[in-house]
Structure formats: structure tokens, C-alpha cells
Amino acid sequence: MSTDLTVLPDDNTEYGTQEYWQKRYAQEPDESFDWFKTYKDLQPLFDKHIPERSSKIVMLGCGNSTLSGDMYDAGYENIVNVDYSDIVIGQMRERTSHQPKMTWEVMDVTDLELDSGSVDVALDKGTLDALMCEKGDVWEPSQELCERVRGEVDEVVRVLASGGKFIWITFGQPHFRKRHLVRDCWDVQVETLNDGGFDYFVYVCSKRMQ
């Protein structure tokens, strides 16, 4: 995991830009970084919500996290990893060449090049949070922020199969985050992860059978 403070942005809003991540991944070609939690922390959650190891999973904004590789080793081999940084996708493709059944694709999470209804599970661990970085009042997010978030969530709705799940792992409390997930097509359940310290929240959006 990176401890190089020079890769941190001058302004947190940079976390929501492609330029920042391209530069960071170019500076850290051999590093990995996991936002919030690792697979070991999340295994009970995945055992509960993704019991079928054959599920088709899309990892939204995969970055250079160890999550996909660890899930692969646990039996989740049908993973499509997407990120808008071609640099990190190239790095991760090479790094996981011994795990050939999962794929790495350069893709914008607000414009997924995936067929409608083709995915069983969409996972987001920190990507939406990056899109939500902005200056201003957290109680009254800007229209621009809401549109960015809507872009990803609407694409998730489109690519999820009936009965599929969108799992969002975040530090964002329900009164700030849940409003962005309201859709007629699914039910939203909120769970809390706490290892004795900071609370993390898991939003599980289950798409109703059609």
C-alpha cells in the first residue's frame, strides 16, 4: 500500500478527475491501494449477498485494489474490472495474468460498454465517493455532483439483471448517501461495518424480478 504523500491531491476535488488518477497510477506502477476495506474484511458480506461464486460481477472503478484478485482466489472468477485510467488497467492486466478468467477494461462508470441486463452484481468500493468530492455544503450537494452520481447509478440499473445487486461500500452515512439511490426498480438495504473503530456503510440495492 502506498505511503507516498506526494501522490495526495492538493484539493480533494481532484479525486473526482481522470487526470489525477492517471498521474497517480503512473507514479506508482507497482503499488496497490484499497479504499475502506479488504476482501478479508468483506468476506462475510459477500458470502451473504453473493453466495453464487459463478456470478458475473462488474468492479466499478477497480483501480489497483487487491479486492478483485482476492475474490478471484476465493472462487469469484467471472469479474469484469473497469476503470477510466488506461494506465492502471494495463498495470492490473499484467499483474493478474495468472488469473486469466477475469477481464480488465478501460471504461467510464457513467457510460458502461456492457449489455443491458448482463451483470449479476455491481460492486463499488470508493468510486462513487470519489465522484462526490466537491467543495460546498454536504447537506445540499450541487446539481453537477448529483448528475455525476446519477450517471453511474443509472448505468448500474441498466446493466443489472433482474434479481441482481448493486453493492456500494462507503463511509457515507445514509442521510447523505441514500437519496442518490432512490429508484423504482430496486429495494435498498443498509448495513454497517465496524471493526471497533470507524463506521462504514454498505448499501445493497436489490433489483426486483421482472
TrEMBL record:
Stored Gene3D superfamilies: Vaccinia Virus protein VP39
Q: Name one GO molecular function term.
A: methyltransferase activity
Q: Which residues form the Methyltransferase type domain?
A: 60-167
Q: Is Amino-acid biosynthesis among this UniProt entry's keywords?
A: no
Is Magnesium among this UniProt entry's keywords? no
Q: Give the record's keywords alphabetically.
A: Methyltransferase, Transferase
Query: Which Pfam families does the entry link to?
Result: Methyltransf_11
The coiled-coil segments of this chain are: none
GO BP annotations, alphabetical order: methylation
Similarity comment: family membership: Belongs to the methyltransferase superfamily.
Q: What is this protein called?
A: S-adenosyl-L-methionine-dependent methyltransferase
Q: What is the lineage of its organism?
A: Eukaryota, Fungi, Fungi incertae sedis, Zoopagomycota, Kickxellomycotina
